[in-house]
Give the backbone structure.
Amino acid sequence: MSSPTRPTLGQVAQLAGVSVASVSRVLNDLPASAEMAARVRAAVDELGYVPDAMARSLKVRRTEQLALVVADVGNPVYVTMMHAVAAAVRTSGYRLVLSTDQSDPDEEMRILQGLSHGYADGLILSPLRVTDALLTELRQPRLPTVVIGTVPDDLPVDNVRADSARGIGLAVKHLIATGRRSIGFINGPLDTVPGAARQRGFDRAARRLGLDRDECPRIAAQDFTFAAGRLAARELLSAHRPDALVCANDLLAVGVIHELDSMGLKVPQDMAVAGMDDTDLAEMVFPGLTSVSLGSADRGTIAATLLLERIKDPARAPRRVTVAPHLVVRGSTAAPLRVVRDD
């Protein structure tokens, strides 16, 4: 089946009611009136026109660059992911370009639209929030794309995801096995993909294991950060005193440990703490942090492999891969180092 004809510069000019030269000025960010720029960009959006940066610069279509877009380059889980992606693409002759959307859906869309102008041969995207606008963009991807994270199965892009809901269950089950019965949960924002999934996982595990909801206080932190973890712990512990806390990522967990220390509470003697992601932080903090590994490096490697395959064979059916979680037990839950898998 032949591919649909791409909109041309002339068609954009005709729809906008301006000359081709005027369209070029706007698309190349040269001086133009606000009214003309608005008409040109409206025509570009309506036609779905994608400027061919390679043709404009008289270069070949291949840029030899791949883009990785993440929410926060300071989060250790994304650093691990980045290293894995970079290692996988380096041997294929590609450079990796890293960008952050700072968890802002609007900034994410600006980055995606900019990349579609021919500045990369493929994209790996790990969105924190999946908006309707993002889903619309991914239903007609303008360049080969792989999404790391949970998205609808009918999206025509390759997808690598972690089962974080199941991972939270591993942490709760472990804490029950160590004798804890009052287990609190410090989550991230519920309007994010990981926040929603981890809340479902905690609620499901609590029900399955017969925990009293009143003895399982829950709070959603403002972000998945160290500072947000301290604030959330302070608020939760002002009204409750569980004997264990599960945190939705390691940054939150380390913040919680620091807050507990400031309150004169010892980990794990007074309160056990478990995190999620099993980043380098889990080994740096004392006592070592029990944490659920979601295979960040594995997800990065798989995503890079899928993207390279997609570039070589654009017509193949989308693939979806789920990386299974496992629990790495350390001193924050009063147990020696060991790995627990849910086989």
Remarks:
- The mean pLDDT is 88.
- The first helix runs from residue 9 to 16.
- The CA atoms of residues 136 and 295 lie 28 Å apart.
